[in-house]
Design brief:
Blueprint (H helix, E strand, L loop, with lengths): L18 H19 L9 E3 L5 E3 H17 L4 E4 L3 E3 L7 E9 L1 H5 L6 E8 L2 E9 L4 E6 L4 E4 L5 E3 L12 E3 L3 H6 L3 H10 L2 E3 L5 H7 L5 E5 L3 H4 L2 H7 L3 E3 L11 E5 L4 H8 L10
Parallel strand pairs: 3-5, 11-12, 11-13
Antiparallel strand pairs: 1-2, 3-4, 5-6, 6-7, 7-8, 8-9, 9-10, 13-15, 14-15
Helix pairs in contact: 1-2, 6-8
Length: 285
């Protein structure tokens, strides 16, 4: 499916108040949590296989429907781009599109593993400006909008502003590379080996959670391949409002290149240089 999102600068300032849109995004997340948790770990959960061979559950469909119904009722002029039901165009005066992944981590969901999320973003003129990541099975949520900082909830229900780490040396960095298979499929195993050899700690946490760990200052890099716009759009405003930087693996301000590279900002250029440095040739014998 072609990208419905034109390129734009993630660092460009936004002239407007996104408070109402952020509040609405959180309302969408409440509706999504109710739909997804209603069938989580159900022994009779219906699971089908999509044309791309990936799984889809009844909860994926029900959760996206719940989000779309609210958007249609309260933001009828806005466009929607969702994983399960595709894209509809904005009919309003502004290019506004809600970008949705109803259950990011369907493989975890259908196995009863609680590390899955609902991702909700609002893109305005091609730039993700509002983002909500909700992980209801563990009682966590993260949210942000341009100019309104990045936030999460604490275990006692309080809200807490979050920010990326101040780590300024690659050898002190902790990173998540998502999966070896992704890097092998992208032809980047050599780069992954350079990365893991250079940092303090590497793990493959997977899906949305490591991006939120980055925004909270617990990781310094998350990178992955074979991602769609709805897999990463919600992360952009959360990470950037937390003081980090989000680009594609190539370093472009784009969520349409099927890759991502998110960092604490301080180390972004250093990580790009490390990952894209020429391979060291074998010594002559």
């Amino acid at each position: 499916m072609p990208s419905p999102l034109p390129p734009g600068s993630f660092a460009a300032p936004f002239d407007g108040d996104l408070g109402d849109d952020l509040a609405f995004a959180l309302k969408l997340a409440d509706a999504a949590d109710a739909a997804s948790m209603a069938r989580f770990d159900a022994p009779d959960l219906d699971v089908q296989t999509k044309t791309d061979a990936s799984p889809v559950t009844e909860a994926d469909l029900a959760t996206e429907r719940a989000i779309r119904e609210l958007i249609e009722a309260e933001r009828p002029d806005d466009g929607v781009f969702g994983e399960e039901f595709g894209a509809t165009s904005s009919t309003g005066s502004a290019d506004r599109q809600w970008v949705i992944d109803p259950i990011d981590g369907t493989a975890n969901y259908l196995k009863g593993i609680p590390m899955w999320s609902t991702l909700i973003a609002l893109s305005i003129d091609g730039v993700p400006r509002v983002g909500v990541v909700s992980q209801p099975a563990i009682g966590r949520r993260w949210w942000a909008a341009s100019g309104l900082d990045a936030w999460t909830n604490t275990t006692d229900g309080a809200e807490r502003r979050i920010s990326v780490s101040g780590i300024d040396s690659i050898d002190a960095a902790s990173v998540s590379f998502q999966s070896i298979g992704q890097w092998r499929g992208a032809g980047e195993l050599d780069a992954l080996e350079r990365l893991t050899a250079a940092v303090w700690r590497d793990r493959g946490y997977g899906d949305a959670w490591p991006y939120m760990l980055l925004a909270e200052g617990r990781l310094e890099l998350v990178a992955e391949f074979d991602v769609k716009e709805y897999d990463v759009a919600a992360h952009v405003p959360i990470i950037t409002e937390a003081g980090g930087r989000f680009t594609s693996y190539s370093g472009a301000d784009s969520i349409s290149e099927r890759s991502s590279l998110a960092t604490n900002g301080i180390l972004h250029e250093a990580f790009l240089a490390l990952l894209h440095s020429p391979a060291t040739p074998e010594p002559l014998r």
